[in-house]
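hey m, so remember when u said the tokens were messed up on ur end? i reran from scratch. heres the input so u can diff it against urs
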Amino acid sequence: MRPLLSFATHGAARKALLVLALLVVGVLAFAGNPFARTRPQAPPADGAGLLEGFRHVEVASVSDALEQITGRKMYMSHRMRPIFATKFAGFAVTVLLKKEANDDPNALSGMLAAIDRGTKDSVYVMVVEDGIDIAGMGGLMGTAMYSREYAGAVIDGGVRDVAYLKKIGFPVYSLGIVPSTSIHHYRFGGSNIPVVCDGVEVKAADLITADQDGVVVVPRADAQKVLALAQEMDFKEHSMYAYIEKLKSIEEAVKKFGRL
């Protein structure tokens, strides 16, 4: 029995060594291949899963994917800039301020109520009618959003108290930095209603994603398809960098990966 046992033992050992060798070769091949990357998995449909996906994909890819899938340009203009470099994704809470001179102490109370009803991962999207030189928000509103774990804010208008917003690390995109106020000049026009923010329609619960390239609005119904295509675009583009560096040819890279 001993010879048989010895043969079986050695046979098992040889198989184990073969499997180990194959694994080592595979790992080394992957590590040695500058083009080897893991393709993204199908994105989840739940809200938290979608946000996690959008937080790790480039906004430029999201914009391209949206245009391919919906035929619409859903990015805000070059005027919409952050007060500091940032990247976030969240679900829209929309607010509209209507231009109207008034002495009503409650004229903007609905704006504050909308902030306090917002939940974690919200993005405050405010349209200040004809308000490029009016601060739609400042440090106090930003502190409220920060404490409620908003992802960020996008203001079609101005922003103030920027030093404090930077101090607490609350990200805001706006059309500019101004010291003015909306008090006595504006009236609350509604919350969680469709608005047009810097030329782009935004509805409550649409997905807002932003990075240093700008801000994009993803209709909630299209979010899963858009994320899947954006992830695929990111995969191709990131794979192309090393390919271009090695071959010193962008034409060859585009021909291989079909991405520009």
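this time it looks ok to me. The longest strand covers residues 88-99. if urs says something different then somethings off w ur setup not the seq
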